[in-house]
Structures are given as structure tokens and as C-alpha cells.
Amino acid sequence: PFTYILPISRYNCKYLGNDENPYLILMETISDDITECIIYDKAKFINKNAFRDCENLTSITIPESIISIGDYAFENCKSLANLIIFEGVISIGDSAFRECKNLTSITIPESVKSIGNEVFVFCEKLENITIPDSIISIGENLFLECVNFTYNIYDNAKYIGNSNNPYCVLI
User: Fold this and answer.
1) I need a labelling partner for 64 at 20 to 30 A (CA). Which of 34, 88, 92, 107 fits?
2) 158: pLDDT confidence band, cut at 50, 70 and 90?
3) Rounded distance between C-alpha atoms, residue 47 and residue 2, angstroms
4) What is the pLDDT of residues 38-73, one digit of tens each?
5) 90 by DSSP, 3-state: which?
6) What is the pLDDT of residue 5?
7) What residues does 85 pair with on adjacent strands?
8) In this structure, what are the phi and psi dihedrals at residue 28, rounded to the nearest 5 degrees?
9) pTM above the 0.90 mark?
10) What is residue 52's DSSP assignment?
11) How far apart (Å, rounded) are the C-alpha atoms in residues 122 and 114?
12) CB atoms within 10 A of CB 84
């Protein structure tokens, strides 16, 4: 059986879990007005829409315990400027960081295998991203309307990548 855990004040989130791990799934925030959140270090999943429309959230660290970031998880977190994703995350869902207008740089960890559709659409200040060689699947329109984004150009084509392979992904 699953149990719904009410938030501890410093975590600002509600979790769904079981007897073995009461913090298995981060379901949602306690309010759209939060400015910070500590993700419990035993959580495995960030649910679809979990932080959606938390326009005042400025910083988030995704701990190594998280294996999946759900669709639209951080959509419209317009103030989010600092994003740290630790090793452990395997998939990033569709539109997960859509309209995070203050993100400027992101490093995707080696553990990530799949990035969904339109993940960074309308991230207007996003300038660069580091994509590991471990990526197996990348969705469509990843950087649509990222007006400040810097691509690596080779033979009239746009690429993104990492320091070892700057031409990892053809955009």
C-alpha cells in the first residue's frame, strides 16, 4: 500500500511512498509560492507537474537518488536560475524545464539516457548545455525559442555536445 506523506516544512513538498520508502515519489509542492525546496534524498521520482508554475523558485538541486524527472516537472519556473542535476537521473520528461526563463547553463550528467520533447523550450537566457555521450534518445524541438543558445557549427550544421565530443548531437 502507498502512503501520502505531508510535507516537513524545510522540504516544501508532498510525497507518495510505501512502508519501505515513504518518500518514493515527489508528487507536488505545498504551494506555487515557494522560493526554495530540498528534495528528500530517498525520493526516486519527480512526478509530472510537481513544480509547475512555481514562478518564485530560484534554485533546485536534483539529488543522486532521483532516476526520473517527469513531464512538465519544472515548467514555468520563471525565476529558476540555478539547476544542479546529480548522477542518477536516467530520463528527463517532455517539457520538464519549459519556460525556465532564467536558466543560463545546464550540465546533463552521464547517467541520463533519454531527454524528452521540448525540454528547454522558451528558456530565453539559456546559452549552453553539456550533453554526455551516454544519451541514447533526444526529443524534438529541444531548444525552440532559446534565443541566446550557442551551438557548435560544423559543415553548415548546428551541434551540441561536451568537451570530449562537441558534435555529439545534430540539432
Assistant:
1) 34
2) confident
3) 15
4) 899 999 999 999 999 999 999 999 999 999 999 999
5) coil
6) 62
7) 62
8) -165, 170
9) no
10) T
11) 20
12) 12
User: Would you give the distance in Å from CA 162 to the centre of its chain?
Assistant: 18
pLDDT digits (tens, 9 = 90+) for 102-134: 999 999 999 999 999 999 999 999 988 888 888
The pLDDT tens digits of the residues spanning 33-46 come to: 999 888 999 999 99
The rounded distance, in Å, linking the Cα atoms of 26 and 29 is 8
For 105-153, give the secondary structure using H, E and C: EEECCCCCCEECCCCCCCCCCCCEEECCCCCCEECCCCCCCCCCCCCEE
Among the listed residues 169, 126, 131, the one whose alpha carbon sits nearest the alpha carbon of residue 145: 126
Write out the three cell numbers for 103.
536558466
Name residue 44's amino acid: K
Grid cell at residue 61: 538541486
Question: Quick one: the chain helix, strand, coil %, rounded to 5?
Answer: 0, 25, 75
